[in-house]
Structures are given as structure tokens and as C-alpha cells.
């Protein structure tokens, strides 16, 4: 298993544990303010953390799926696959006073990288 490091996100508002060798894509190209993007130095894999706007018409697990599928559609994903959707325990959240619920969705999307065909 690769060594890991604590990586601050969005100016330190929260953090994620990432492999030590993960490359911050914003050091290579512009990244939107609502995204943090990291890539693996050897594989063709990337991790995108994206802050999304509340959509009041969907809640709970359905909201997590809605946003994942919406981002895939906007990016022109050839395939979108949800692997799991799990609730987060609110007592483990730094923003617990601001949230009524929190979810983690794990999935895969097959999307062409910038300037490439799908």
C-alpha cells in the first residue's frame, strides 16, 4: 500500500487522505474553484472532489446519485457506474452544525481527458 498524507482541500476548509505521490492538477492547469483535482503519477487515474449546489428536489441517497450522474452527463461520460452510496455519521463531520445529512458515493465514470476522444 502506498504511503498516505493528509491533504487540505478548498483552502483548508476540510481535508482528505491521499497517496503521498498524488499530484495536484491545479499546479499543471486551471481547475474550477469548486473542484480539487489530483492525479496519480503512474496510472491514468484521477480523483476529483467537487462542491455542488443544493438541489432541493432530491434528498438523501437520491441526491448523491443525482449529482454523480449529472456531473457525468455534463462531462460527456461514456459510462457512469455507482458502486455504493453510504450515509456518513454526522458526529464525525466538522460541519455537523450545518448539515442534516451527508452521503458518500463511490463510483466510476469513463470520461475523456482534456483534448482527447472518449
TrEMBL record:
Presence of the UniProt keyword Protein transport in the record: yes
Gene Ontology BP terms: heart contraction; protein import into nucleus; regulation of membrane depolarization
InterPro entries xrefs: Mog1, Mog1/PsbP_a/b/a-sand
Keywords: Protein transport, Transport
One example GO MF annotation: sodium channel regulator activity
A GO CC term attached to the entry: nucleus
Homology family: Belongs to the MOG1 family.
Full protein name: RAN guanine nucleotide release factor
Amino acid at each position: 500500500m502506498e504511503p498516505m498524507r493528509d491533504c487540505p482541500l478548498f483552502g483548508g476548509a476540510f481535508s482528505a487522505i491521499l497517496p503521498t505521490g498524488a499530484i495536484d492538477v491545479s499546479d499543471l492547469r486551471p481547475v474550477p474553484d469548486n473542484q480539487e483535482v489530483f492525479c496519480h503519477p503512474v496510472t491514468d487515474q484521477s480523483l476529483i472532489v467537487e462542491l455542488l449546489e443544493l438541489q432541493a428536489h432530491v434528498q438523501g441517497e437520491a441526491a448523491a446519485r443525482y449529482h454523480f450522474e449529472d456531473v457525468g452527463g455534463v462531462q460527456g461520460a461514456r459510462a457512469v457506474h455507482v458502486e455504493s452510496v453510504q450515509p456518513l455519521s454526522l458526529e464525525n463531520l466538522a460541519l455537523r452544525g450545518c448539515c442534516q445529512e451527508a452521503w458518500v458515493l463511490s463510483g466510476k465514470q469513463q470520461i475523456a481527458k482534456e483534448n482527447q476522444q472518449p
